[in-house]
Amino acid sequence: MRFTSLVVELIRARPRLVVWIVVLAQAAIWLFLPVIFYGSPPGDLATVLAFGREYQVGTAMGPPLSFWLADIAFRAAGNHVFGVYLLAQVCEVATFIAFYHLARAIVGGPQAVLAVLLSMTVVVFSSPSVEFGPLILARPLWALLLLHSWQLIGQNRRSAWFAWSIDCGLLLLTTPAAIGMILLVAVFAVTSARGRRTLMAVDPLYALLVIIVLALPYLIWLVRADALTLPPLPVIADLKARALRWGVVLGGLIVAMGAIVLLVILNSRWFTRDSDDAPIIHRPPVGPLGQQFVYFFAFAPAIVGSFVSGLFNVDRVFGGAGVALLMSGLAVVVAAGDLIHLRRQRLLRTVWALAVAAPAALALAVALFLPWTSTTEAKTSLPAVAIGHFFDDSYQRRTNQRLRAVAGDPEIASLIAMAGRRPHLLLDATPERTPWLSIAKFDETGGVVVWRARDTAGTPPPEIGQRFPGLVPEVPRSFDRLVNGRQGVLRIGWAIVRPKG
């Protein structure tokens, strides 16, 4: 007698409901985990907020859209980082919902659910969804761009041209990899007969006009900043090292797909005898164009992105792993055929849940248990709010003015710039990255210079003393981390630069 679980029946009857349930559950985990267990934002999120408050058209960190949205979300939440965490999860939900609609248009609703479940194990594992920035914002825009591209090429829906142009324009305002992503779409369109017919109309000209209008302010900034040049190409002697870097980045992407490989192996006929009694998820046949579309965008972004990373010696795949591996789940589903047997359902569910929950468990372990087993500091363990309020209040008591700027150690200064009254951030070691504030202007308006204290006197590091001569260090301030463990307290040295006049 064939047994079909409730999950399988839901996939068959209510595929959209299943997608919403798993996507919202995953978003809830990554929303509340940092709120409860993070004392400071992960990654470069504090720097993203410091750049976002300046509302620059362009900066050294790239196009401005993600920084603006981060600042808006932060202010909307009452100057609390919860708003940015929520924005990051909104992007994740939008990514998988758009991806589901794309997969449903190609393989139907039930198998589209399987594609979403498989891609979740890759995207969630390969790149954290909490560190909002260009890489996170690019994911839903890439998913929407692929969806509207398929509607144009595969379904011949001319009404999708306007949405497609909006996707391209917003991508150009989000990530430097946008040009490469758009070129991939153009390459597929030019190399397919249906795509060439789609381009032989007046609609692409209107779409190009919309894209130029959206991206024009940033393009003007690129011209004025003389930032349109590519990074220098490697010399012949460095080609071997760059090729090795390409292999390392590409290998990392392959490792990130380990959960998909494991699920495919466990679902094969090798591990069950009654494979004919397994429930089946069927789909209508996928045409050659659909197969070409899926395979092209499953492999091309990963190969091209890793090659660019190797060429210019970048540590991560160009454009982000969430973009490069988004279509991997759909590629596996298309390759599996029109009928997919779900064998050993309980084991598959367990492995899938572990693959999705593993990154969250790892983040929790780093926050709570790493301080007890290692002297390596977890970046999320610093008490950002306490640090920011202390220096903001101390400066105001000493000068009877609010704190306007902060400089020194980039990590601590970014946390101070995020908390309190949000002073301007000056990266004094690389002042060209913060063009809204110079060292001369900092000396004139005043501010706080901070560093990690190495002694009880709070002597500033030599490089900071050279950039700010005449600093009079205050008594170092100690702060408890979220979990001190074997690391002891955090001691911050600081000095006040009083405003002139």
From TrEMBL:
Keyword set, alphabetical order: Cell membrane, Glycosyltransferase, Membrane, Transferase, Transmembrane, Transmembrane helix
Domain Glycosyltransferase RgtA/B/C/D-like: 63-221
Molecular function per GO: pentosyltransferase activity
InterPro entries: LipidA_mod_glycosyltrf_83, RgtA/B/C-like
Keyword Zinc: no
GO BP: lipopolysaccharide biosynthetic process
Major localisation: membrane
Regions crossing the membrane: 17-37, 81-100, 170-193, 205-223, 243-266, 293-312, 318-339, 351-372
Membrane topology listed for this record: Multi-pass membrane protein
Keyword Coiled coil found: no
PANTHER family named in the record: BLL5595 PROTEIN, MANNOSYLTRANSFERASE YKCB-RELATED
Name of the featured protein: Glycosyltransferase RgtA/B/C/D-like domain-containing protein
Species of provenance: Bradyrhizobium macuxiense
